[in-house]
Hints:
Layout: E1 2-9, E2 12-19, E3 27-31, H1 41-54, E4 57-61, H2 66-69, H3 78-93, E5 103-108, H4 110-121, E6 126-132, E7 150-155, H5 159-171, E8 177-182, H6 194-210
Parallel strand pairs: 3-4, 3-5, 5-6, 6-7, 7-8
Antiparallel strand pairs: 1-2, 2-4
Helix pairs in contact: 1-6, 3-4
Amino acid sequence: MNATLDIQAGSATLPGDLDVPLGSRALVIFAHGSGSSRRSPRNMMVAERLRASGGIATLLFDLLTPSEDAVHANRFDIGLLAARLMDATAFMLGLPEFAGWPLGYFGASTGAASAIIAAERLPSEVQAVVSRGGRPDLAGDSLDRLVAPTLLVVGGRDYEVLEFNRGALTRIPALHKKLEVVPGATHLFEEPGTLERAAQVASEWFERFLAEGSMAAPGE
């Protein structure tokens, strides 16, 4: 099933692209980085991998309205972006066909910080988090309370961001956490094979940590 949704987030209406492979029983919501949108080609590629390899449904949605995105500061308002992600989570899990589904977040760049904050505040709803080239350090104190299994994927040549992620990993108390360094990759994973590697490890992480509840039928 493919559908375009209007997601209510407070007073804002945000467009989202939902793809549900036949037989899927888990959902991953994507949080894009600053200046990007639900049409991020990198996130779309990862989402396609999740659907193909893990049979995982995906939702890519815009965190800001066009008028909000025109205000540059909004793109870095991590608290606002986290609130939007939490609203989208409540919206999706409130739909009868997704009630009780295990759920994960995939955050890219600054979107990773909003994913961490939202996951820390929704520990019962969010079972796994993956960050790609993310800035988990921008999540503030939420790092110190994050219990969802968390995978940090960083390019080996993204030197400054790699150091931010190394520091963040030491603060996360989750029982399952890992830093995956992709050799040769810079921040945007533009080098041949690097984005594919990031997508592969993300898919494996979600398959592992969303599988426990994935056998339940919708609504059970």
